[in-house]
Write a structure and sequence with these properties.
nine-stranded mixed sheet, 4 helices, Glutaconate Coenzyme A-transferase, alpha/beta
Length: about 210
């Protein structure tokens, strides 16, 4: 057993704190908006110029003008505000965003993050990830622990071009939760049905 995408997003939602401004990256992180705990006041920011994102719309009620950074349709709230990219990145670079929850292709044991390109493959662009990891207070990565071929994506050193060096604080995968600490990664918890031995066996990085 391991967590599926929705369970990973629900676990990531436990990282949220009341009153925080949070940026959700493309992929699994966008699902976090569906699992914000009842009664918690969290404002979601999207780098394409939206502050105060709601959950995904019900089928048939989509508004093509309301999209997140991943070009998925979303909903607005009564307090939602809109602005240009310069204002959006001013918030990010100015340290106004408390946390970013991002996807990743690889993470290293020292917190290095690779999540924007694979050499030789066409990419749409680096997006806002490089600004986010440099400007926000806390970076949480949500990703599959291994590749489709079973190779670990939690590594001693990243092999892909880096988005940022030593920027990741916590890693949430389908196998468990790990914190970046001095000397490697510390296991915080294992996913339901996953043993610590299975987590260690699937991890190239140093687990302390």
């Amino acid at each position: 057993m391991a967590w599926d995408r929705n369970q990973m997003a629900a676990r990531a939602a436990q990282e949220l704190q009341d009153g925080w401004y949070v940026n959700l990256g493309i992929g699994i992180p966008t699902l976090v908006s569906n699992y914000i705990p009842d009664g918690m006041d969290v404002t979601l920011q999207s780098e394409n110029g939206m502050l105060g994102m709601g959950a995904f719309p019900i089928d048939g009620e989509e508004d093509a003008d309301l999209i997140n950074a991943g070009k998925q349709t979303i909903t607005e709230l009564e307090r939602t505000s809109y602005f240009d990219s310069a204002m959006s990145f001013g918030m990010i670079r100015g340290g106004k965003i408390a946390m970013a929850i991002l996807g990743a292709m690889e993470v290293a044991e020292n917190g290095d993050l690779a999540n924007w390109m694979i050499p030789g493959k066409l990419v749409k662009g680096m997006g806002g990830a490089m600004d986010l990891v440099a400007g926000v207070g806390r970076v949480v990565v949500v990703m599959d622990h291994t590749s489709k071929h079973g190779d670990s994506k939690v590594l001693k050193e990243c092999t892909l071009p880096l988005t940022g060096k030593a920027v990741v604080d916590r890693i949430i995968t389908n196998l468990g939760v790990m914190d970046v600490v001095e000397g490697g990664l510390k296991i915080v918890e294992c996913a339901e049905g996953v043993t610590e031995e299975e987590l260690r066996a699937a991890t190239e990085a140093t687990l302390i």
